[in-house]
Design brief:
Strand content of chain B: over 45%
Radius of gyration of chain B: 13 Å
Distance between the termini of chain B: 38 Å
Largest interface: A-B, 27 and 30 residues
Number of helices of chain B: 0
Helix content of chain B: under 10%
Structural class of chain A: mainly beta
Number of helices of chain A: 0
Oligomer: heterodimer
Amino acid sequence: DQQVKQNSPSLSVQEGRISILNCDYTNSMFDYFLWYKKYPAEGPTFLISISSIKDKNEDGRFTVFLNKSAKHLSLHIVPSQPGDSAVYFCAASAGTNAGKSTFGDGTTLTVKP
Amino acid sequence: SQTIHQWPATLVQPVGSPLSLECTVEGTSNPNLYWYRQAAGRGLQLLFYSVGIGQISSEVPQNLSASRPQDRQFILSSKKLLLSDSGFYLCAWSIWPSSYNEQFFGPGTRLTVL
């Protein structure tokens, strides 16, 4: 049973437009949600996060939205830049779970110039 | 600042051979440490995590084992590799408790078992 799902394996957008990456989860115990960005042959890097007590967190061009009732979160990148092209992983963790996170399978974002 | 090292970067091993991947963290004390595997086109599968020296929790039954002989050293091992052990292995650390449970990843090891 995959507890964190990213249903879109890939997304292609034009430079300057908005990129929206989606993530769904099933475990209601998750209370922290994170997005990581990964370039080929490198480890993922932490991008942005949100706790379950919020519905929005913004950091520059990146905004994460959380809809707890739908068990859905999304990452918005505005405006998208070619350097944003990477694999984006959604992750979720429960506060009592020793820092372990459950990751989705990732969405490959391609931003075309 | 904190740094995480993994080696080797790439490894090609025959089936049945042993494996040892090493991960070290600098600039922090008593981190939580994690080993993940990423199969081709898939997400990150947590293999092991450790909250302290000698404390290892296994997340999935498999052909691998992990050890933490020192506070900032985490080792992934196998006595006999299988073809299915091929993948991209990532070590990560975090501070527990933390604000958002964010983890910091090493550069990874690409393992190919032939």
